Amino acid sequence: MSEGRYFYDTNAICEILKGNPAYKERSKAGGSTTLFNLAELNYSLKRQGKERADEQTTDYASCLVDVTVADVLEAMSLRVMRRAFSVPDAIGYVVAKRLGLKFLTGDKEFQGMDNVEFVK
After folding, report:
1. Distance (Å, rounded) from C-alpha 26 to C-alpha 38?
2. Three-state helix/strand/coil letters over 5-56
3. CA 30 to CA 21: how far, in whole Å?
4. pLDDT digits over 65-100, tens only?
5. CA distances from 36 to 20, 41, 57 (A)
6. For residue range 7-30, what is the model confidence (pLDDT) as tens digits?
7. How many domains does the chain have?
8. How far is CA 115 from the centre of its chain?
9. pTM
10. How far, CA to CA in Å, does 73 sit from each of 10, 76, 81, 88, 116?
11. How far apart are CA 45 and CA 20, in angstroms?
12. CATH number of the domain within which 71 lies
């Protein structure tokens, strides 16, 4: 599943795992994510008591892309301006722009932003 067309934020991966039909076709196009998003995903799944949290998280390991120091610096500048963003999603947004991927999310904080495909 490497790069593909989309960058999956944590919300997008959760919706894919839930079987949300709005995400089904988009997941077929393939996507990327960061280790930070997978950490957030794993935490969320474990907090919900999901028995397969580790397995479901590991399923997305092939989608991982590298994060640079420049990505982190830009993302934290963005997060200072938009505090509602999680650290993983701010980093993911910057990485998506750098890689030329659409940032796929259902997080309302990103609605209307450049390079975002907002899906509920």
Report:
1. 19
2. CEEECHHHHHHHHHCCHHHHHHHHCCEEECHHHHHHHHHHHHHCCCCCHHHH
3. 15
4. 999 999 999 999 999 999 999 999 999 999 999 999
5. 23, 9, 11
6. 999 999 999 999 999 998 899 999
7. 1
8. 13
9. 0.92
10. 20, 5, 13, 13, 20
11. 16
12. 3.40.50.1010
For tokens 């935490």, the residue is 43
Q: Are 67 and 80 in contact (CB under 8 A)?
A: no
Q: Is residue 1 part of a domain?
A: no
The Cα–Cα gap between 102 and 50 comes to: 29
The CB density around residue 69, as the number of other CB atoms within 10 Å, is: 7
For residue 38, which of 55, 52, 58, 20 has the smallest C-alpha distance?
Answer: 58
CA 98 to chain centre: 14
Residue 94: give the domain boundaries: 6-118
Sign of CA dihedral 119, 103, 54, 73: negative
